[in-house]
Amino acid sequence: MKKFTWLLPVLLGCPPSVPEDTDSTDTSTDTDTGVDTDTDVEPVEVTVVIATVAADFSVGSLAEVSGDDFSVSDELAPLTSDPAVITDDGKVIVLGRYGFDSVRVYAAGDYAVPETEFSTGEGSNPQDAAICGGDLFVSLYGDDEVRAYNLEGELQGSVSLEAYSDEDGIPEASSMVEIDGVVYVALNILDQDGGFQSAGPGQVVAIDCETRTVLENYAVGPNPSIEVFPGDAGRLLVRTGVYYVPDDGALSYLTLEDGEVHEWVSEGDLEADLTEVASSDAGALLISQDTGTSQYSLWCVNAATGGTSLLGTTFSYINDATVDANGFAWVAAREGYTEEVSVAGVAVYDLTSCEAVNEGDWLSLSLPPYAIATY
Question: Which domains does the chain have, with CATH numbers?
Answer without folding.
Answer: 22-374 (2.130.10.10)
